[in-house]
């Protein structure tokens, strides 16, 4: 699979400079950058379930090694060697859910609202279709309207709500479950 070069810029760039971002499958050498990225996003407390991943690079590399490119994949949005976003898919492990892939996405502050989320989602959905997945599913915090609007624009539909499922900054919030049928 060849990388998708794209052009987008950081939201808060004073000069609005356009930078090159390459979306590609993750490699073991991305471990340190991915750790930095997930911890920056996790500290924001409002976008992903993870608050912090420990600084163990060997464990991160081991985790990266679990993405086989067949039933699991992790794409990295790479801006000059630094991970500024990622999207992953984990295929269903059981015969009854083998057709379903669960998606996760995380984008660093300063790189949101410039089209990177759409690029990552389109890439992961293309990967899923090429491998015969029938359904994509994801969960989004009820307060994350920007992400929900993106998913809806890609055809995802709300399938359910887990009421007061996540604790964010002292408040219990709903988590919305969304799905997209990929193939007939």
Task: Explain how this protein is built.
Helices cover 25% and strands 37% of the residues. It is of the alpha+beta class and 184 residues long. The protein has one domain (4-181): 3-Layer(aba) Sandwich (Aminopeptidase), CATH 3.40.630.30. An eight-stranded mixed β-sheet has the order 1-2-3-4-5-6-8-7. The protein is globular.
Order of helices and strands: EEHHEEEHEHEE
Number of strands: 8
Named at the architecture level, the CATH assignment is 3-Layer(aba) Sandwich
Q: Whole-number average pLDDT?
A: 89
> Strand order across the biggest sheet?
1-2-3-4-5-6-8-7
Helix content: 25-40%
The span between the termini is 24 Å
Number of helices: 4
Strand content: 35-45%
CATH hierarchy class name = Alpha Beta
CATH structural fold name = Aminopeptidase
* Spans of at least 5 consecutive residues with low confidence: 9-16
Question: What labels describe this entry?
Answer:
globular, 4 helices, eight-stranded mixed β-sheet, 184 residues, alpha+beta, Aminopeptidase, 25% helix
